[in-house]
Specification:
The chain is mostly beta strands. Helices cover about 5% and strands about 45% of the residues.
Length: about 280
Amino acid sequence: MSHHQFRSRQLSIGAGTVALALLAVPAITMSSAGPAAAAATPSAAKLNPAVAPGGNFDLSRWELQLPTGSPGSPTTIPSSGLVGSNGFQDSYFSTDKTDGSMSFWDPENGVTTPNSHYARSELREMNPNGSAAAWSVPGTHTLSATVKSTQIPNHVCVGQIHLGQNSGSTKPLLELFYYANGDVKMGIEQTPAGGNEILYKVGNVPVGTQFTYVIALTGGNTIRLTLNGKQTTWPLASAFKSYTMYFKAGDYDQSTGSSSTVGAKVQFYALSIQHA
């Protein structure tokens, strides 16, 4: 959830690349402006409402996890089933018919994984050969996106760096949360064992408004988040440096219940990954 060597490679979905980085202690915030800030902000390409998400976004390096299946064993769709204009879509993962965005719906009563109380409609990073991505910390690793949410019961995770599935931990390094009141917060775990995540408020975006984020882990020691051009960084705790990691993006609703109509809806207008 293992690459120890990297070539520079980029996965684009709908648009260019954004820069976001990972740290884990006192946050240092600064505003970005000018050409450098513009370069770090993804711009959504023109999207076609008439095709599946795979027709607008490069999904060749992603696996989809759905809030359906059997308890503890959610349905997953491999990259091969997602790519192209006729790729997979259903009521939980589809193209919005008005603006072409890649839309995720996640009801509170959805099926969960064995290690979570929350259901999700979410993409998981994969390797070109279809195996689970698991990259080592050195280098620069970036997840960039333009997103909007129109329905949030409490808060929803729209981007993650997760520890590798064979790393000995089932926890994320960090989660980017979007709240029903518009707050955007970065949650950073302090140890691989989990249970000690610290939340940092990084901004506020009215629900229903598009925003861009870039999550980056750089130099083997820094977490960086760029939210609408504003950068915040944290130091990466040394306990994480020996772990492999991967990106996730989508709709990981942080509420539970028995309702099939209460849940989170998240729409993506651009999505890209870069490793260098």
